[in-house]
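FORM 7B: Structural annotation worksheet

SECTION A. Query
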Amino acid sequence: MPSVEYKGFAHPRVEAQIPRLTDAHSAGQYVKMSCCWCKITRMYRPLDILKLVGDVHVLKLHRRFYCEKCGRKDYMAVEFKNVMGSEIAGMRIRELVEIRMVKKPIWRDTKL
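SECTION B. Predicted structure
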């Protein structure tokens, strides 16, 4: 029996029809990420997510991000959300301020 969970392997024609982050930006949509474990929801701009992971479609996003509250990534749900004009007034958006690259040294002991 086939799995209902998307694994990332589909026919190229089907993959081309799934909306991507650039499509969401051009349509004026937002990226809604929610954790089904701790029931927290956050909204992001598609261009901020695009800077982090590239132009991927919505089905490949849900396993790429961790919940900041509980630390799980297997309960993340991602969708593109259309927002009406009256909803924008009080909506909270998480903005990307900067991307930091962490350098971590890895040492090895050798015998002379």
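SECTION C. Observations
The CA atoms of residues 61 and 78 lie 7 Å apart. The beta strands are 30-35, 40-44, 76-81.

SECTION D. Sign-off
Analyst initials: ____
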